[in-house]
Specification:
The chain is 32% helix and 33% strand. By secondary structure, it is α+β, with helices and mostly antiparallel strands.
Length: 460
């Protein structure tokens, strides 16, 4: 170990201008053996002092250079990130410019203005990068030149095709007028105040408004219904409901916070009618009123009431109601529930009336029939029925595209009437048709699709 120290010291002395190693004579180094037998060497160095100050300067300079290099590396990394973003946005802008160049029908004046703004931003960014890096490379020069060329192209395109832009503007104005006319016609259907019965009944029904296929996205789910709560509880005024299956069995119902959630198929709650209890139903003529589902109870045959707040169900047998007389379009449509401005209703047929349609008013608190009316139409000749302001409207099929309201019954005057109010079907087969007094619309479950109609009333 001592020999290595000596060698290092000799080399250091040589490096800093001391006497060369070969000039150190044997007289300068003496050795002896200690009491314990260890080797003791005595080295006599010249008086020249070790240049520690020079070593400090070298170390300080090295640290400063290291810090400068690290700062510059960070700056380059940051600039590289900005360049990546710039190149990405420039690629996107180039694509958009190609679309603009492809034809006059692909752009409007606003598109030119947006392109100009973005090009100015790119030009400013390239200038900033050049200044920050304190360099003028061929890459920056190429980018700057490309941006300037794109700006000129935008100006030329706008100048060249002003006439085409004017044509597009006129087409937009025509479209706007058509939309305004459509809106006016839509407003014309809302001629009676919501909740008011100061009108002379239905004058006509709008064309079908098709929302979409059912939320289960199943073309085989032909049996079901959808709509809004006819008397919503506070906080659920915009709620929609939906239920469907491949048969007339009713086993669950979905509710949605609003129309958007319905269309996006995002229910806020799904209620199962077959869990620890068998509360399932049959048929598709059910409605939701007061956050409660009213439906045809499966076993025993009766009218059911499922409270979605407490998630409990009860049923009541309807005196004399028969399960042999369904609507024309589908089996198991024996009890049809409806709601209007005056309350809750149910239609059915009995053996005593030999299948003629019977209308009952439901006392919601007691969940029992408070009054009953017998009509003169055979229930199996009817495709569906609904209530508006205490008047029953019955429908029948005209052809695969046309439905007709052909019969009305006024519960106040106990008079019936044969009418002809035709309206268009989306498809030939439907199982649920109900009026909602909250928005004066008809809701139809038509071959698995959500369909609705606006109603135009006669003047009182």
């Amino acid at each position: 170990m001592m020999h290595r120290i000596i060698s290092l010291l000799l080399l250091a002395g040589s490096a800093y201008g001391w006497l060369p190693v070969e000039q150190w004579g044997s007289g300068n180094v003496t050795g002896s053996v200690g009491e314990s037998g260890q080797c003791i060497c005595n080295v006599f160095l010249p008086d020249t002092t070790f240049p520690a100050d020079r070593m400090d300067i070298v170390q300080i300079t090295s640290n400063k250079l290291s810090a400068d290099v690290e700062v510059y590396i960070k700056k380059l990394t940051s600039m590289k990130a900005e360049l990546v973003i710039l190149l990405s946005e420039l690629t996107n802008l180039t694509s958009r410019l190609e679309i603009v160049e492809s034809g006059p029908d692909k752009y409007i004046k606003l598109e030119f203005d947006l392109l100009r703004v973005e090009l100015r931003e790119f030009e400013s960014l390239v200038t900033h990068l050049k200044t920050s890096l304190n360099s003028s490379s061929s890459i920056f020069d190429s980018l700057y030149s490309e941006i300037r060329n794109m700006s000129l192209t935008v100006d030329q395109l706008e100048s060249y095709d002003r006439s085409n832009l004017e044509v597009i503007r006129l087409e937009f104005m025509k479209l706007q007028k058509k939309l305004e006319k459509c809106r006016d016609e839509q407003d014309d259907f809302s001629n009676a105040a919501i909740g008011s019965c100061k009108h002379g009944g239905i004058l006509r029904i709008s064309k079908p408004v098709v929302s979409q296929l059912n939320a289960d996205l199943s073309g085989s789910y032909l049996y079901g219904g959808w709509g809004k709560d006819s008397s919503p509880v506070s906080g659920y005024e915009n709620m929609y409901w939906y239920s469907a299956f491949s048969s007339t069995l009713l086993s669950r119902i979905h509710v949605y916070s609003d129309y958007y959630k319905l269309i996006m198929r995002q229910p806020m709650k799904t209620y199962e009618l077959y869990t620890s209890h068998d509360w399932r139903g049959l048929g598709n003529n059910y409605i939701v009123r007061g956050n409660t589902l009213y439906y045809q109870y499966r076993e025993p045959f009766s009218m059911g009431k499922y409270n979605m707040t407490s998630q409990t169900a009860v049923y009541r047998v309807v005196p004399s109601a028969s399960n042999r007389f369904s609507y024309q379009y589908s089996d198991s449509q024996n009890l049809d529930f409806a709601a209007d401005e005056s309350g809750l209703w149910v239609t059915y047929a009995t053996e005593v009336t030999k299948g003629k349609l019977v209308l009952g008013k439901i006392d919601e608190a007691a969940f029992a029939l408070s009054e009953v009316w017998e009509t003169n139409i055979f229930k199996q000749s009817v495709t569906n029925a609904f209530m508006i302001c205490g008047i029953l409207y019955a429908t029948r099929s005209v052809d695969t595209q046309t439905e007709e309201i052909f019969y009305t019954y006024n519960t106040r005057t106990r008079q019936d009437n044969y009418v002809s109010i035709k309206f268009e079907k989306f498809q030939d087969f439907y199982v649920n048709l109900d009026y909602n007094p909250r928005d004066q619309k008809l809701y139809m479950f038509n071959n698995g699709y959500y369909v609705s109609y606006n109603i135009k009333f006669k003047s009182d």
